[in-house]
Design goal:
Length: 553
């Protein structure tokens, strides 16, 4: 049975049970299996009336919604290849994807593209189809997902029915481990846009199992939506978990008094426990925090959480340990769009902070001589849309070349160390992966929101630092220990401490504080929170040049 047949069968078994919902007006507006199938039937009728046939392409531009899901299922059921577009991208980027994928039809929730079909028309009920979904062969393409494009032009990744069917088997097996045997439906929350492979896999997994998936409708009110959805698990990006951690710590500090003292001592105690250097009284502080503070934090984050799932980029070990300390496991997932979103998954109850788990059953992973992670298995995409040369390059030798660097321990548990294309090569010839140093600096600077390391073909490393708004009057500074003002001295102190344990070529010798964070809106972050390093270097070229000239003077 294909993944699509499994989903339709599950919806048919749940005619009167909620399967999907949206957060609206302080509550959840849900649809049952029968209601979702009716919406799918309306969309299938519209698609058939427009003359789309198996193998044609249709682009979908809209925020997550029940109707988005119904249209997605309808298109795949008719054999149409779905091209999900990112509604948060700027217009020229959306236009570039449409031009590259050449869809016969573009569907939108509101008038945004000339000639597009609108959801109100698609779900008008004028046409309806109730036949079984098309039975896909494993090699049939069902979607083209465009990579987020941290540098260069996004590429369309073809994913097949076989890719998705295999991956849903993997995700269902791991979620069964997490949730155990239960009769009641699981509650799942989703805020990442469906244009991303991981978000789509969570959607399709949820529709294939006994769960109710609640969709976010306002990213500015995630905390409220989470409280309403009360999920058992949901998928996150590291940036979101870093923000949650920072808000918790800031809230405790503002409260002050006994609670802040217990929390601070418990943190230090937990850190010593992880480094196997516990003291006699440590258990008392952890017991106090577990009794007086951590339960309230867990209730605020999510009273029903079994785990937080995190992907898209490596999560810092410190943040993973923070959530483990308060009693919320964080399970890391590693993968790329080209691997149908997943290669490794942490196993519940067997998590090592800083690592992303072992390869899922049926997937092979190895490291090349240069540390690049190579992968093969049924989840590997067949190729990029209309890019045969680039496809051949990344699939050379029968392995998918991920472009990520990593290493596995003897048990096969992987740690991601960086991206090959992000590698900084100093003019001394030293090669440096920036991500570990960036993560270390952010972890040591609660007031820093982002750090970008510089130094390609330079004589030393420097950093651009953005603040999270907790530092007032932030000013630019050069880390020479002389001209830095208040926040500059703070950053310099952290750099001195960090540099003390590093070889000379890895030491960060200059920095600049920028007036605003990198964001999707200013074009310096992807919609999944990844740094657009090339765009950052171009935007701040003058500041970077001045930074190096001043330090070298």
């Amino acid at each position: 049975m294909t993944f699509l047949e499994s989903i339709f069968a599950r919806l048919e078994r749940s005619p009167n049970s909620p399967v999907l919902g949206e957060v609206r007006d302080g509550g959840i507006v849900s649809v049952t299996g029968a209601q979702l199938l009716a919406l799918v039937g309306q969309a299938r009728g519209f698609v058939a009336a427009r003359g789309l046939k198996s193998g044609d392409r249709c682009a979908v531009l809209a925020p997550n919604s029940v109707r988005w899901v119904a249209l997605d299922l309808a298109l795949m059921a008719e054999g149409v290849i779905v091209v999900p577009l990112d509604p948060r991208q700027v217009p020229h980027e959306i236009a570039a994807v449409i031009k590259d994928s050449t869809p016969l039809l573009v569907c939108c929730s509101k008038p945004e593209v000339d000639g597009a079909a609108l959801f109100d028309d698609i779900f008008s009920g004028k046409h309806e189809v109730a036949r079984p979904p098309l039975r896909h062969a494993d090699h049939d393409a069902v979607t083209i997902v465009y990579t987020s494009g941290t540098s260069g032009e996004p590429k369309g990744v073809l994913l097949t029915a076989g890719n998705i069917t295999f991956m849903l088997g993997c995700t269902n097996a791991r979620l069964n481990q997490l949730m155990g045997a239960r009769q009641e439906p699981e509650n799942v929350f989703q805020y990442a846009p469906f244009c991303f492979a991981a978000a789509r896999i969570l959607l399709l997994t949820s529709l294939s199992r006994n769960s109710v998936l609640t969709l976010s409708t306002d990213l500015t009110r995630l905390a409220e939506e989470l409280a309403i959805a009360a999920p058992n698990y949901f998928v996150n990006v590291p940036m979101f978990l870093e923000r949650v951690r920072r808000k918790i710590e800031e809230s405790i500090q503002k409260r002050g008094g006994f609670a802040a003292e217990v929390f601070s001592r418990a943190q230090r105690t937990y850190q010593r426990k992880q480094s196997h250097s516990s003291r006699a009284a440590d258990s008392l502080w952890l017991a106090a925090a577990n009794s007086l503070i951590f339960p309230a934090i867990r209730r605020n984050v999510g009273p029903n959480l079994k785990a937080l799932i995190c992907g898209s980029a490596p999560l810092s070990a410190d943040t993973q340990l923070f959530f483990m300390m308060i009693g919320i496991p964080v399970l890391q997932v590693y993968g790329l769009t080209e691997t149908t979103a997943i290669c490794t998954m942490d196993e519940p109850g067997n998590v090592e902070p800083g690592r992303v788990g072992r390869a899922v059953p049926g997937v092979e992973m190895t490291a090349a001589e240069n540390g690049e992670i190579l992968v093969r298995g049924p989840h590997i995409f067949p190729g990029y849309w209309q890019r045969p040369a680039e496809t051949a390059k990344v699939l050379e030798g029968g392995w998918f070349h991920t472009g990520d660097q990593g290493e596995a321990d003897p048990s096969g548990n992987w740690r991601i160390t960086g991206r090959l294309k992000n590698l900084i090569i100093l003019n001394s010839g030293h090669n440096i992966a920036p991500e570990p140093l960036e993560q270390a600096l952010v972890a040591s600077l609660p007031e820093a929101q982002q750090v970008v390391l510089l130094g390609n073909q330079r004589s030393f490393l420097a950093a651009l630092v953005t603040t999270n708004g907790s530092v007032n009057g932030a000013r630019n500074g050069v880390a020479n220990g002389i001209d830095c003002r208040v926040n500059g001295r703070r950053i310099q102190s952290v750099l001195d401490s960090l540099n003390a344990g590093l070889p000379h070529y890895k030491q960060i010798r200059a920095f600049q504080v920028l007036p605003e964070p990198f964001s999707v809106e200013n074009g310096l972050l992807t919609t999944m929170g990844k740094l657009k390093r090339d765009a950052i270097a171009e935007r701040f070229a003058a500041e970077i040049e001045k930074l190096y000239q001043k330090k070298s003077a």
